[in-house]
Amino acid sequence: MTTTAPPTEPATEDGKAPSTPPRIRLGIDLRSRRLRTTNRLVIYVAGVPSLALITVGIIVMATGTGGRDVIMGVLILGMALTVATAVVVSSILIAREAELARLQGEFVSRVSHDLRTPLTSIQMFVETLQLGRAKDAETTQACLDALGQETGRLLALVDRLLDWARIESARRIYEPRRCRAVDVVNAALDAFEIVRIQGEIELVRDIPEGLPDIDVDAQAIVDALSNVLQNAARYSQPPRKISISAKLVGDMVEVSIADNGPGIPSNERSKIFEKFYRGTTAKAMGIGGTGLGLAMVRAIVDAHRGSVRVEPNSPNGSVFILALPLADTPH
Ligand SMILES: Nc1ncnc2c1ncn2[C@@H]1O[C@H](COP(=O)(O)OP(=O)(O)OP(=O)(O)O)[C@@H](O)[C@H]1O
Ligand SMILES: [Mg+2]
Questions:
Q1: For the residues 178-201, what does the mean pLDDT come to?
Q2: Does the CB atom of residue 273 touch ligand 1 within 6 A?
Q3: Does residue 311 share a domain with residue 245?
Q4: 277 Cα: distance to centroid of ligand 1 (angstroms)
Q5: Which among 47, 158, 208, 241 could disulfide-bond with 43, CB atoms 3.0 to 4.6 Å apart, if both were Cys?
Q6: Average pLDDT in the 3-25 region?
Q7: End of a domain among 74, 106, 138?
């Protein structure tokens, strides 16, 4: 295999090594930093003066002698409060945008790395076969199996990105139909069976046959449930146990998936549904991922007029609850 050395710089005329040019980080990270700077500017340029104006308004109202002074004070206060509210709202929006840009930057480098790893292995195995290094049928078969596995990993990742792109750009078409809730849950469990066996996961199910029908695109809900099941398998430690149950709550069927994993810190419970967000547990455990799974789950259930939420499980772990609309509920 050939490797390309980084280009070296020529020495300067006086023989000294050339000074390293300043290194600038470009791209999304830069955008995130710019947004944070803009945020600080907005706070200093508009926030501080509006606070000063609020103080002036209060002083005028408190020390004024006539009705005119009070009206003047109220006007100053009103104007200053409007500006202050605008500053707070725009500051929150800019901070959110900056955080999103940062997460997007992390996502791009993570996905590039996740694409590169299987590609490097594929290149290595192809070279082994091309150069005739696989001397016997057994080694050749091992190379072919590894090639199949790595190609599968690549395809799964690319499919996930394409799925997300379709969902985010509202190109995924849902075809809701009357379905038996138990059939939808069973289809998701069937798709999960291989992972369950490989991960030696104990599965406890409580899905009553008599549940009312739901009005959903069955494949989309199977995808959503599969994402939650995959997470339960991925983030819990042996001995793994997943419990799945369903019940009627108001005009929704609620499907709950509970695991005995590390759980999700309370300050992360709303963030994990944001696109690109990866939790501290996932990072600490060194588990890879795109950070898109739960964003997809939320987008799918929202499109069905349903909802998804997470609660702590007892004594440990998390419970993800998907609420799905009944078939006979008027839209
Ligand atoms: N069952 C769970 N137990 C503990 N943490 C979880 C669980 N499910 C999700 N998380 C946390 O929520 C984060 C977001 O999950 P999400 O499925 O969106 O992305 P991901 O699993 O990191 O990547 P991928 O898009 O490949 O699924 C995870 O990084 C993890 O920290
Ligand atoms: Mg996931």
A1: 96
A2: no
A3: yes
A4: 8
A5: 47
A6: 50
A7: 106
Nearest CA to ligand 1 atom 19: 291
- Per 3-state DSSP, what percentage of the chain is helix, strand, and coil (rounded to 5)? 55, 15, 30
Domain shared by 215 and 240, yes or no: yes
Ligand nearest to the CA of 319: 1
- Residue from 223, 277, 278, 311 to probe ligand 1 pocket by mutation (most atoms less than 8 Å from CB): 278
The answer as to whether 10 is a domain residue is no
How many angstroms separate the alpha carbon of residue 279 from the centre of ligand 1?
Answer: 7
If asked whether residues 138 and 190 sit together in one domain, one would say: no
With H, G, I as helix, E, B as strand and everything else as coil, classify residue 323: strand
Please list, residue by residue across 272-293, b when 16 or more beta carbons sit within 10 angstroms of its beta carbon and e when fewer do: bbebbbbbebbeeeeeebbbbb
Looking at residue 77, its pLDDT comes to 85
Work out the average pLDDT over 308-331. Answer: 91
Same domain, 234 and 292: yes
* Nearest protein CA to atom 22 of ligand 1, as residue: 291
Q: Residue 230 CA: which ligand 1 atom is closest?
A: 27
Highest mean pLDDT among 7-16, 19-28, 65-74, 256-265: 256-265
> Domain of 268?
177-325
pTM attached to this predicted model: 0.80
Measure CA 141 to chain center: 38
Last residue of a domain, one of 139, 168, 197: 168
Report the mean per-residue pLDDT for the chain.
Answer: 88
To the nearest 10°, report the CA torsion of 26, 27, 30, 32.
-170
